[in-house]
Design brief:
Blueprint: H1 5-12, E1 18-24, E2 31-36, H2 42-51, E3 54-58, H3 61-64, H4 68-74, E4 78-84, H5 88-95, E5 104-108, E6 115-119, H6 122-132, H7 189-197
Helix pairs in contact: 2-6
Length: 198
């Protein structure tokens, strides 16, 4: 992934031979585009790529030879892809018209003499800087993220102490009498007055 887009745009914007520098956001990953107003020296770029362990694979040879209206439908202008060295499969699939996975690509603008260098990775930026004769400086590391706060243990409410249940009335004993401690339901007021008068 390319870092420090703003710094890189500022460093390359006014170089001789550079038409435009852009940071192009995509959902699959942001791209760094450098549009040149003259043709790139492919032999020099190939030498730099070889030094870093990459190879330049030619792509789009057949569709680029088609008439322009048809070529624009079938071909997105990619003419070279910088891939890992020794990828024979990439060379074979690119000859069939399948774009190999690489760190950078060089696109021929169908509407002008421009070539565009496109990359999504720092290795691609490093090769570009070396090609342009600039000192490559890696991007600044991202600021450290604050440590996530420790989760606070949830306070679980303890159930209240159980309320003691009233004792059930005692069962009659084997002799058929009930114990004296068994509470009797209160008598109505009329019965209480009769009992007092007697």
């Amino acid at each position: 992934m390319v870092g420090d887009f703003q710094r890189r745009v500022a460093e390359l914007r006014f170089l001789e031979g550079v038409e435009k520098v852009e940071h192009v956001p995509y959902t699959a990953g942001d791209e760094f585009w450098v549009r040149f107003n003259n043709r790139l020296d492919m032999n020099r770029l190939k030498g730099i790529s070889d030094k870093h362990g990459y190879a330049i694979v030619k792509f789009g040879g057949l569709p680029s030879k088609l008439p322009r209206p048809l070529a624009e439908i079938l071909w997105d202008g990619v003419s070279y892809v910088i891939t890992r060295k020794g990828s024979g499969l990439a060379k074979f699939t690119s000859s069939l018209g399948l774009e190999p996975d690489g760190i950078a690509k060089i696109v021929s603008d169908a509407h002008g003499p421009y070539q565009i260098y496109i990359t999504r990775q720092e290795d691609g930026v490093q090769i570009l800087y070396e090609y342009l004769g600039l000192k490559y400086t890696p991007p600044a590391p991202p600021p450290p993220k604050p440590a996530p706060a420790k989760p606070v243990a949830a306070i679980v409410a303890k159930p209240a102490a159980p309320v003691p249940k009233p004792l059930a009335p005692a069962a009659p004993t084997a002799t058929g009498t009930s114990p004296a401690a068994t509470p009797q339901p209160p008598k109505p007021a009329a019965e209480q007055t009769e009992a007092l008068s007697t």
